[in-house]
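In the design runs reported in the main text, the only information available to the sequence generator was the tokenized backbone. The following block is the verbatim input for one such run; it is reproduced so that readers can re-run the procedure and compare outputs position by position.
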């Protein structure tokens, strides 16, 4: 049996260059954690971009960088600034991201972006061919690399290739607007197994395959030439234990060990014990519905003025893709909305919204999750949304209310949350009121179901289920070849 090769746009390590010395520290993100069971020992290799463009990489340190990455089981694909612009900020984040999240009006169909996307995907495919053997198993991740499976297949017809999409796959009516729709489908169909977070995304993909390529589709199998491609859903979980253990540790901290943020949250509770904290955490992205949420919050306070001074909304937005104009506009819109709502509704004793625009360390996320009475997540579209799962995992006493958009992939598995349509302000105002008054017994009952499910289907189970399905495809393929 060969190696397992994982490919994603970014490597799961952070490179730091200081005084001519390189250090590569493993990232702590959900994907990196989930892949631990797959990416371990000498039998696996992770290929991706290091985060440094060619221009930022001192030539004399090339070898040291390669060595530092190799120690982490990684190999890099070199990209220059112009490639990052066209491939990552361009086609990936100005064409595919908005289109797949149903923001058709934001999607830019630029030939230059497409050409760079193709050539960079070819670079990733070439790196795979160079670093792998025919009997290796390849797992390609996400929307930045949709052409890679077919590019590898052309050179390696018998290699086993899996692909997982972390964002939604849109309905046929949306997807068909993409000028390069056939090429994208053909790229993906180079895989043996294609995974999505939900059954709906899987269905949308199969519908596009049938209607745009005219291929035979039977249940979740696509027939192409002499190959059968399996399409299935694998809802991604979280590192449940990590969040649960961190929350237990947090609860046991003595007062002098508490962080500044936690002390501020504690003071808030002590000075206004009847007030409830409502939390939302997202990357600053238009798909997350942050601006609409702020408008809905204002609507709620105007519809039910008795909640003034009784609730506080904490918005934590992590900076993201700030080179893309839509994200700059959104940042401005959110800054203005927070300023206006706080300006209009604040009292001497109360500011309705606390707004943080930054990436916070893990410990601060835990402070926020464990101190909030309500989590309110309103994406307009979201492949999964792991924040919803993380909030539930940290609720050690099983209290807390999750209000979650039905447009998030996670809503399919989290029926015990209060599910809302983020465009319906009336419904959200009533749901916030319901959450405020929800009896503790009901909170515990809902959360205990959620916790059991999230603990069982954690991120490691997700990675293993995908790999098992991929290995099954490889074994069937081998049996077929030897017949
Ligand atoms: P994202 O769009 O980034 O991921 P999400 O699934 O919510 O969205 O994951 C965000 C992660 O970042 C969480 O693990 C969270 O803890 C962390 N985070 C958020 N805000 C932070 C902050 N201010 N500081 C530090 N950390 C913060 C994409 C898709 C999702 C899909 C995931 C996984 O868009 O739909 O769920 O991939 O497939």
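Verbatim output:
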């Amino acid at each position: 049996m060969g190696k397992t090769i994982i490919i994603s746009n970014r490597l799961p390590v952070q490179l730091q260059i200081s005084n001519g010395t390189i250090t590569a520290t493993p990232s702590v993100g959900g994907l990196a954690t989930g892949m631990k069971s797959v990416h371990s020992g000498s039998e696996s290799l992770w290929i991706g971009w290091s985060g440094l463009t060619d221009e930022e990489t001192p030539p004399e340190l090339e070898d040291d960088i390669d060595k530092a990455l190799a120690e982490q089981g990684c190999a890099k694909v070199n990209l220059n600034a112009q490639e990052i612009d066209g491939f990552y900020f361009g086609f990936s984040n100005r064409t595919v991201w908005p289109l797949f999240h149903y923001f058709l009006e934001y999607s830019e169909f630029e030939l230059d972006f497409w050409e760079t996307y193709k050539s960079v995907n070819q670079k990733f495919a070439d790196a795979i061919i160079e670093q792998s053997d025919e009997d290796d198993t390849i797992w390609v991740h996400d929307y930045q690399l949709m052409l890679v499976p077919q590019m590898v297949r052309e050179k390696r017809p018998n290699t086993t290739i899996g692909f997982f999409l972390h964002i939604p796959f849109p309905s046929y009516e949306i997807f068909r607007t993409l000028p390069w729709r056939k090429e994208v489908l053909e790229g993906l169909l180079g895989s043996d197994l294609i995974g999505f977070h939900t059954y709906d995304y899987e269905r949308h993909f199969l519908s596009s395959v049938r209607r745009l390529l005219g291929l035979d589709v039977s249940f979740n199998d696509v027939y192409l030439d002499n190959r059968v491609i399996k399409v299935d859903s694998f809802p991604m979980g979280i590192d449940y234990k990590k969040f649960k253990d961190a929350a237990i540790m947090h609860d046991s901290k003595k007062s002098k060990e508490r962080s500044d943020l936690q002390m501020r949250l504690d003071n808030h509770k002590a000075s206004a014990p009847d007030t409830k904290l409502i939390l939302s955490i997202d990357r600053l992205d238009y798909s997350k519905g942050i601006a609409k949420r702020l408008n809905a919050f204002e609507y709620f306070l105007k519809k039910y003025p008795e909640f003034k001074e009784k609730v506080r909304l904490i918005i934590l937005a992590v900076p993201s893709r700030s080179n893309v104009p839509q994200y700059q506009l959104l940042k401005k819109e959110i800054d203005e909305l927070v300023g206006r709502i706080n300006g209009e509704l604040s009292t001497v004793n109360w500011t309705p919204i606390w707004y943080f625009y930054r990436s916070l360390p893990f410990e601060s996320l835990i402070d926020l999750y464990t101190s909030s009475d309500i989590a309110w997540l309103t994406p307009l579209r979201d492949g999964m949304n792991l924040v919803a799962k993380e909030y539930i995992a940290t609720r050690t006493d099983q209290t807390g209310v999750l209000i979650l958009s039905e447009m998030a992939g996670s809503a399919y598995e989290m029926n015990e949350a209060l599910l809302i349509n983020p465009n319906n302000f009336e419904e959200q105002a009533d749901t916030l009121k319901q959450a405020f008054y929800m009896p503790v017994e009901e909170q515990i009952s809902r959360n205990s179901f959620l916790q059991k499910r999230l603990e069982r289907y954690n991120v490691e189970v997700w990675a293993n289920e995908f790999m098992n399905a991929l290995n099954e495809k490889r074994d069937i393929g081998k049996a077929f070849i030897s017949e």
